[in-house]
Write a structure and sequence with these properties.
This protein is of the alpha/beta class. Helices cover 19% and strands 27% of the residues. It contains 6 helices and 14 strands. The chain is globular.
């Protein structure tokens, strides 16, 4: 929907409520929506029983005080669906104490589950994980003599993503690897908030360079400059 989608991080996250399922883009610190993570963390006294779907919960192994660690430390999250939580010290601590449920997938499977959610598919078939703990409790199928796991789609109430450049309509350009999970997550949530450092006029992004078309974007947040 075209119109004025520019807002603040606080206003954009007003749609969240306890029990919400949230997708968070980013691969470590690449393509991560920092201000949205900080705004979510600030609501630590209001929100509970959240589910977070994120590659690594916006953590970085060389920075124990990373914003993703601080976000998880709040205790807002009941469950973390991810691919690699090992860099998030807070997540590993809470999980070891039985205070955070971890659901871990191989990275490709994780991405495909989200893609399936965005495309309206019933699931994806993958041989990855067959014969391992990942397969426990999951339906399997034999196709041409090979066994596959049926992995169900992932969707969220809200997706918090990053865009390298966003125009006033909400069209998003992603520079290099900053696109990572942001692009597929934009398709798999009911409400999508994109954070950007570069907010440009409508039509300033060439159509051939648009990674996420404006109909997927509900709100735009301009990242604050920090020293």
């Amino acid at each position: 929907m075209k119109g004025n989608k520019l807002t603040t991080a606080k206003e954009a996250l007003a749609v969240l409520k306890s029990g919400s399922v949230i997708m968070l883009g980013g691969f470590f610190y690449s393509g991560a929506p920092f201000d949205l993570v900080r705004a979510l963390t600030a609501r630590k006294n209001e929100l509970r029983d959240l589910t977070l779907i994120s590659n690594d919960a916006c953590s970085e192994y060389v920075f124990p005080d990373a914003i993703g660690n601080a976000m998880i430390e709040t205790g807002m999250f009941r469950k973390l669906i991810c691919t690699y939580p090992g860099h998030n010290h807070a997540a590993m601590k809470l999980a070891s104490e039985g205070k955070l449920e971890l659901e871990i997938y191989p990275m490709g499977t994780f991405a495909e589950k989200i893609r399936a959610g965005g495309a309206g598919l019933g699931g994806v078939l993958t041989p990855v994980g067959v014969g391992t703990e990942i397969a426990e409790g999951k339906e399997t199928l034999i196709i041409n003599g090979r066994e596959y796991l049926l992995e169900l789609p992932l969707r969220a109430d809200v997706a918090l993503i990053y865009g390298s450049r966003v125009d006033a309509y909400g069209n998003v350009y992603e520079r290099g690897i900053s696109g990572n999970f942001n692009m597929v997550m934009a398709t798999a949530a009911d409400y999508v908030v994109v954070e950007t450092k570069e907010y440009v006029s409508a039509g300033a992004i060439d159509a051939s360079a648009v990674a996420i078309p404006e109909p997927f974007i509900d709100a735009i947040v301009l990242q604050e400059e920090r020293a």
